Amino acid sequence: MTMTDHADDLTDLDVFFDAARRDVPPLSEAALERMTAQALSVQAGLPALAGQAEAEQTARARLRRIARPGFLSQLMTTIGGWPAMAGLATAGVAGLWIGAMPPAALVNLAVSVGAVTETAEYDLYLVDPLPGYALSLDLTEGQ
Prior knowledge:
The protein is mostly helical. About 70% of the residues lie in helices and about 0% in strands.
């Protein structure tokens, strides 16, 4: 028999399990009395435990209301606090500034790379920021 051969017949263990099921010794009177005494002592202490659990739950709820920071506070803590927010604000303002009025060196770089034409800086006035209004004006002019 090799290691890959599996024996599907597990009758060897079934013999021991059947013996354990048949030979169950009865519980002694002393063991039953000890179990009953332990159960009664636990039952007697349950009201005190219930009151203690209720007090702990009330204290936890009070702490949750007092100590829990708001969403924006948690978000700012996650980002890194005020120094990180200052960096984000600076990056945003710089991005708007560079995007709205790009420096000449940046335009020259874009022209040399071939990303835009040489007249791109002067052709910006030809861009229509609201192209949807042209169609509506054309439709209402003829009436």
